[in-house]
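Slide 14.
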Amino acid sequence: QVQLVESGGGLVQAGDSLRLSCAVSGRFFSNYRMGWFRQAPGKEREFVVGMFWSGGSADSADSVKGRFTISRDNAKNTLALQMNSLKPEDTAVYYCAASSTVYITRRVRDYTYWGQGTPVTVSS
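Slide 15: predicted structure.
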């Protein structure tokens, strides 16, 4: 089992920055695929950005490309999402997720482990 716990959400204004963190613990392997997803009220959960825990380039949704950055800290076993130039349409609950797949994937169903989510609200 893998445990994921997000933190760092909150209320910000448009144009502000926010950094989310995901603490990773349990039976976890470095080749896992990690991802950040989000779900706005009344909408389906959608992919935001992902990477392999072992490293390599990130895969980002077009809506956040150039504004959001994913990173991981091996020493602290944490995954981070740096969000800059936030927009009201970024308002959602943000989830950290892990997948044992060995390929790049954006599909929600490919991710087995999920955190409880942290809410982000961006006011205009």
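Speaker note: The radius of gyration is 13 Å.
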